[in-house]
Amino acid sequence: MKMNFQYDNYGSLEHITFEGLNGCETVRDMKNALELLKIENPKRTFQERVRSGEFDDTPEDEYRQIVSAVDFAATLWRYSDAKVGELAQLEMNVLMLLANAIEVCSKQNATLIRHNTGRRGM
Questions:
Q1: What three-state secondary structure class fits 51?
Q2: Model pTM greater than 0.90?
Q3: Which secondary-structure segment (H or E) carries 7?
Q4: Mean pLDDT by 10 residues, the chain (122 residues)
Q5: DSSP alpha helices (H): ranges in the chain?
Q6: DSSP 8-state symbol, 83
Q7: Which residues contact 70 (CB under 8 A, 6 or more apart)?
Q8: Region of 13 on the Ramachandran plot (φ > 0 left; ψ -120 to 50 alpha; else beta)
């Protein structure tokens, strides 16, 4: 399965979709698929897009923002017991990715609250 994405004007990922499902799966099929379903690390897709020349005309500062967004998203492709410096996985189970994303959101929410940004979380 592959994650497709676009970028906003601030270098964030948006319009995230996944290739590989057709929408006609039954609940049983989905349960079985979720146990096996792995999503490719978006860094790999991004590198393919760079090699194809998609970003050749992108201004350097915008390109750096996009790289930063992709690098951040790619950090989710790590197991919770991964050692410091261990490379991210090339693909990961969708449920592990969801758990990682929830953990990151929770940590960012706690940071926002600690820094009194005026918002009560996300």
A1: helix
A2: no
A3: strand 2-7
A4: 73 69 65 77 93 95 93 89 84 85 83 70 52
A5: 27-36, 42-51, 60-74, 94-114
A6: P
A7: 13, 42, 43, 46
A8: beta
